[in-house]
Automatic annotation (TrEMBL):
UniProt family annotation: Belongs to the major facilitator superfamily. Spinster (TC 2.A.1.49) family.
Domain Major facilitator superfamily (MFS) profile: 1-278
Membrane-topology descriptor: Multi-pass membrane protein
Alphabetical list of SUPFAM superfamilies matching this protein: MFS general substrate transporter
Cellular component terms per the entry's GO annotation: membrane
Transmembrane segments: 20-39, 51-74, 86-106, 149-171, 183-202, 241-260
Top-level taxon of origin: Eukaryota
GO molecular function term, any single one: transmembrane transporter activity
Alphabetical UniProt keywords: Membrane, Transmembrane, Transmembrane helix, Transport
Pfam families: MFS_1 (PF07690)
Protein name: Major facilitator superfamily (MFS) profile domain-containing protein
Annotated localization: Membrane
Record flagged with keyword Transmembrane helix: yes
Length: 278
């Protein structure tokens, strides 16, 4: 969180954005796995999906709110400071506050604050030993067949996300206004958020009745719906801005149905793989 905060603060005052952009990636790489691990360790098999669903919901809700604030600030100036710089500064401040709250109130279920005896003291390891342990753990995870399937599926699975990054441009080429394009993208994010919570609840329910296949079946339904829904959106609807209502309906159902994998299955399975290796 501190690295992320430093990145956002640096962007708010620096004119060399490329030189500090890497800090954002480092901050995300540190924060995201830690958050997911904390959620996984704080829940059990009965509510894993619901917890990850709400994590997805709150994250997307925050993105929507942040988007509106950034759009409002971007064309403005305050005390001679560009609005977009103020937006980065606000993100840095919020990140700092969240980091302090996590430090003060978050509880790691695997950590005990009670003093330990000398026999239970953790053995201090050198940096080289830590690196070797990390490499051995990574190797053991990579050797799990289902994890290999994750990786194989993930490579082509990123194609759709990359392609859909051009949705705003495509909507505007059809003839939608900037405001209506923003509305469609906001609607898509809202559908993603609702779909995550629904997937979490259904994933937990199916896991109790079909432990070996319930979550997987739900994700297969979600993945299988992507191609026909994308086909309807890209090929089946008229290229006419007057059909905005139809686009909104398709976009909403697309976001609602095609985002079940993470909350229902993927994050739960990743946590299970980690448990198997420890």
């Amino acid at each position: 969180m501190g690295v992320w905060c430093t990145d956002k603060f640096s962007r708010s005052i620096s004119s060399h954005l490329r030189s500090i952009k890497g800090l954002n990636g480092i901050g995300l790489a540190l924060a995201a796995p830690a958050i997911q691990a904390l959620v996984a360790d704080s829940t059990n098999n009965r509510n894993h999906g619901l917890a990850f669903g709400w994590l997805q919901f709150t994250g997307l809700l925050g993105s929507i709110i942040g988007l509106f604030i950034a759009l409002l600030l971007s064309p403005t100036t305050l005390l001679g400071i560009d609005g977009w710089r103020i937006a980065f500064f606000l993100v840095a401040v919020v990140s700092m506050i969240v980091g302090m709250l996590v430090w003060s109130y978050a509880v790691d279920p695997h950590f005990t604050s009670e003093p330990v005896s000398k026999e239970e003291d953790v053995v201090q390891k050198s940096v080289l030993n830590e690196v070797n342990d990390f490499l051995n753990e990574t190797k053991s995870i990579i050797q799990i067949p289902s994890f290999q399937i994750f990786i194989a599926q993930g490579v082509p699975g990123t194609f759709t996300g990359a392609a859909f990054s051009f949705l705003p441009m495509w909507f505007e080429l059809i003839g939608f206004s900037h405001n209506y394009t923003a509305f469609l993208l906001t609607l898509l994010s809202i559908a993603y958020a609702i779909g995550g919570v629904f997937a979490g609840v259904m994933g937990d329910f199916l896991a109790q009745h079909f432990p070996n296949a319930g979550r997987v079946i739900l994700s297969q339904i979600s993945s299988g719906s992507k191609i026909p829904l994308a086909g309807v959106l890209l090929l089946g609807l008229p290229y006419d801005a007057s059909s905005g209502a139809i686009y909104a309906v398709v976009i909403f159902f697309m976001g609602l149905i095609t985002t079940w994998e993470d909350a229902a299955t993927n994050k739960k399975r990743m946590q299970s793989h980690w448990t198997e290796c420890n």
